[in-house]
Amino acid sequence: MLAADDIVELVNAYNPKTNADLIRAAYDYGQKMHEGQFRKSGEPYFTHPVAVAAILTEQRLDDATIVTALLHDTIEDTRSTCFEVERLFGSEIAGLVDGVTKLTQLQLSSSETKQAENFRKLFMAMSKDLRVILVKLSDRLHNMRTIKAMKAEKQQQKARETMEIFAPLAGRMGMQWMREELEDLAFKVLNPEARASIIRRFITLQRETGDVIVRITGDMRNELDKAGIEADVFGRAKKPYSIWRKMEAKEIPFSRLSDIYGFRVVTGPEMDCYGALGAIHQRWRAVPGRFKDYISQPKRNGYRSIHTTVSGRNARRVEVQIRTRDMHEVAEAGVAAHWSYRDGERVQNRFAVDPTGWVTALSEQLDQDDDHDAFLEAVKLEMYSDQVFCFSPKGDVIPLPRGATPIDFAYAIHTRIGSACVGAKVDGMRVPLWSRLKNGQSVEVITAQAQVPQGTWLDIAITGKAKSAIRRALRDADRERYILLGRELARAGFEHLGKKASDKVLDRAARTLRLDDADTLLARLGSAELTVAQAVNAVYPDIDRDLREEIDRTRVVVGLHHGQAFERAACCQALPPDRIVGITTRGKGVVVHAIDCPALTQHEDQPERWLDLRWAEGAHPPIYTVTLDLTIGNDAGVLGRICTLIGEQKANISNLHFADRKPDFFRLLVDLDLRDAGQLHSVISALGAESDVASVRRRRDTTAVSEKAIVEQRIRL
Ligand code: MN
Questions:
Q1: Which residues have CB less than 5 Å away from ligand 1 (the ion)?
Q2: Ligand 1 center from residue 389 Cα (angstroms)
Q3: 709 φ, ψ to 5°?
């Protein structure tokens, strides 16, 4: 294990102004905290944070990042606390350590690939400072380098996570070397045979053709020398994983794979890049269509380089990247290039991308903030700051807009879950439905079958999906109530004219008014989109006009003065059995509000305009219960058919019990909610026609109202 002084020396090499005491103090504190803890390999646990810090020194990172690496597991795994780290090392470092801890605590349990992108976003959204991600990536890199000590199953899991989440994240941070190493380490676990076979191929190839890399590098150096260009030339075989990926993508065998070698020419001034390109193209034939100039047109993430592919010896293609030293540094270190030091100074690399700009580039928004110093203190990841990422009980990450509530979460999972939501647990604790969700929280929605979406949810939900689902459900529920009210309005109105609003009459009215069906007509009446006078006129166009106008102020509302017309207020749309009050107006007669309507406050100081109102008795459609006594064959599905038949007559089953059960038959008592005798007759005839029904009759020895009584009551109303 590296000693404290070794770490200090590593940092000192690129940053002589380092705060050596701070690093030593962090080292001692971390060592003390992890004392007595061991890794799976048997080594003292503290070897791990030290190794992570060492990886970060290779990227020449600032003191705060190195100290964070040394402390990165203390809050999670020891008795240390965030508070103590802040007291000892200050708030910047405490914030960074806390950030790493939060990422460590995430359960990356989902195995679905489509979730990986959400996890990567979650990581970025949770890290207020990109250095948190740099530490977390180095942490993962060291764990992957030492993965052999883990159980096979755990190795698989960690390798998958690395392949799906961490390696792409490193790539997104612009750290190509880190991405490649993470991929290769994961590939070794996930597909060791494929990796071994690719390496064997390389060895065979080398035996056949000699060391191609050394030869080509030598050739290139020669050419550049001749052209008088000072440059470093590096060559390397591509990593097994990237070769594997190419073989998979192009579905070709290794032998037919071109450009398995890559070369880099790193020059001083930018002009030399073009000089080098000329020298190389003069000596080797350029492969058409493979030339790209990312120097004159940098990639959005700041990457600059000239790419070309040439045919080398034996017609083997080689890929060449040409760039300056500064460009090279940014291409390798990515976002880390920002905190890099050289000779005690923060590197002034004019190509290094402002991390805020970097992030902006990632999110493909081009409005970049040019204030170069503002980001240095704490880099905010604006990219995902308008989103939160929460976990479902299954471990899926659900992305939501900032400010989202458990209602939004429930609807994001499924409309059914949203509609049935009665409560929520966040991280295992019951919370009110209006709570705002935070990044990384796990949310469990509590549902109940009887629940229906509530009007108040519209104020709680912020996502369009939830809001529109709630509105739709409320509209459907309103429709039911409108139909009930509409039926009563029609009944009272038609009766006033000595007519009956029978189903047949309503159907006719609906047809004449070009409405879908009688229910639609009733709903329109109930919601006051249509007047009863219009409905009456549709069926009885000859009825006296005065009489027709009169029916619109029939007895539905009690308490109106003679000749007063009323109108339901649009703000509260009161329906029976809501308590109501009337406000007299000049133009519209009396406007009826629900007693709790907020609009009423504006009339508080005008008591003379208030009118006591109530819904007329029987403003609810009357419902009568009748019990039917059925004997039915004991056949598969018969019960379901009977319920369907009853439902088709628009009757409600309010209760159902078995009176007697024999192998072949059973006797069934069914309580039905019915409107009138006509409906009872249709139910009885429908059941009588069903072959499985042996007998059907009314049970008269109960409290049920007789057919005649129903008719009488009906008429009395
Ligand atoms: Mn760790």
A1: 73, 139
A2: 23
A3: -60, -40
Express each pLDDT in 220-243 by its tens digit.
999 999 989 999 999 888 888 988
Contact 138, 69 (CB under 8 A): yes
Question: What span, in angstroms and rounded, lies between the C-alpha atoms of 323 and 231?
Answer: 10
Catalytic residue IDs: 76-77
Instruction: Single out the residue of 248, 265, 268, 266 nearest to residue 257, CA to CA.
Output: 248
Residue 303 to residue 265: CA distance in whole angstroms = 15
- What tens digit of pLDDT does each residue of 107-124 get? 665 555 556 666 666 666
Residue partners of 443: CB distance under 8 A and separation at least 6: 390, 391, 392, 398, 406, 409, 424, 425, 426, 437
Interval between CA 463 and ligand 1 midpoint (Å): 37
The candidate with the shortest Cα–Cα distance to 155, out of 36, 40, 4, is 40
Give the whole-angstrom CA distance, residue 486 versus residue 619. 10
Asked whether the whole model's pTM tops 0.90, one would answer no
The domains found in the chain, sorted by start residue, are 4-190 (1.10.3210.10), 193-346 (3.30.460.10), 367-476 (3.10.20.30), 478-543 (no CATH), 555-717 (3.30.70.260)
* Cα–ligand 1 centroid distance for 415 (angstroms): 40
Residue 134 Cα to ligand 1 midpoint, Å, equals 12
Q: Is 498 left (phi over 0), alpha (psi -120 to 50) or beta?
A: left
pLDDT: which is higher, 545 or 650: 650
